[in-house]
Design goal:
Blueprint (H helix, E strand, L loop, with lengths): L2 E5 L3 H12 L4 E5 L2 H10 L4 E5 L7 H8 L7 E5 L4 H9 L4 E4 L4 H15 L11 E4 L2 E4 L4 E4 L2 E3 L3 H12 L7 H9 L8 H14 L9 E4 L3 E4 L2
Parallel strand pairs: 1-2, 1-3, 3-4, 4-5
Antiparallel strand pairs: 6-7, 7-8, 8-9, 10-11
Helix pairs in contact: 2-3, 6-7, 6-8, 7-8
């Protein structure tokens, strides 16, 4: 069974999500703080986490930073606030997506399915044989590794998928909506800003001077491309 961990200090939200997601066939674990979420993760098999940002004892941002020290499980933030700063901070430390409360259950379900498909390697685009190479960047799709000038680069799964998409078509400009559809396998839902954050994070890892990128270029008003 595919298991989802729901972590929110509002028990009514946890209960409502539990009922809805159990109805779709998922196994559910529950936690009401970041500390409890970490305890569950160390004891149980979890395939996706719905994680609230604002919680007592340990908030979602802190919990995520600790989760990423030992797990690459997909994390979708549940934010009661609409400010971009919360969302961007979460994405920068390893969140895969965010959704703002109050949320549409249908949209939430679509996001959950999208991330689970990629995490479980069901329904994602076919793996390419061998490696992709561009300048000093080497991407091996079989081992899911990336090197820059011979040095290993640690990428999240989402960053890896975006990089693979761009490297498969060097010089091609992809709009944020194109990237979102290709990587998340869902309609953008107005969250193209997620792509910009991941691109910036990729630059921080792959560019010696992110302010003047050598590889990951923005084409203003159109999108992004990779070139050497």
């Amino acid at each position: 069974m595919t298991n989802i961990l729901i972590c929110d200090d509002e028990k009514d939200i946890v209960s409502a999500l539990e009922i809805y997601l159990q109805g779709e066939g998922y196994g559910i674990f529950k936690a009401y703080s970041g500390i409890e979420a970490l305890e569950v993760l160390k004891e149980e098999e979890v395939h996706l986490i719905l994680l609230d940002i604002m919680m007592p004892k340990m908030d979602g941002i802190t919990a995520l930073s600790k989760i990423r020290q030992f797990s690459n499980v997909p994390v979708i933030f549940l934010s009661a606030r609409g400010e971009d700063t919360d969302k961007i901070l979460g994405l920068n430390i390893g969140a895969d997506d965010y959704i703002t409360k109050p949320f549409n259950p249908v949209e939430l379900s679509a996001r959950v399915r999208s991330h689970l498909r990629r995490y479980l390697k069901l329904g994602s685009h076919p793996a390419m044989e061998g490696s992709l190479s561009l300048g000093g960047i080497e991407l091996n799709d079989r081992t899911k590794t990336v090197t820059l000038d011979g040095e290993n680069v640690s990428l999240t799964r989402t960053e890896f998928d975006i990089l693979r998409l761009l490297m498969a078509s060097p010089g091609t400009v992809f709009s944020p909506r194109d990237i979102y559809r290709a990587v998340w396998k869902e309609d953008p839902y107005g969250t193209e800003n997620i792509v910009a954050v991941h691109i910036r994070h990729l630059r921080e890892k792959l560019e010696y001077n992110p302010a003047e990128p050598r590889y990951l270029k923005a084409v203003w008003g159109h999108g992004y491309k990779i070139e050497h």
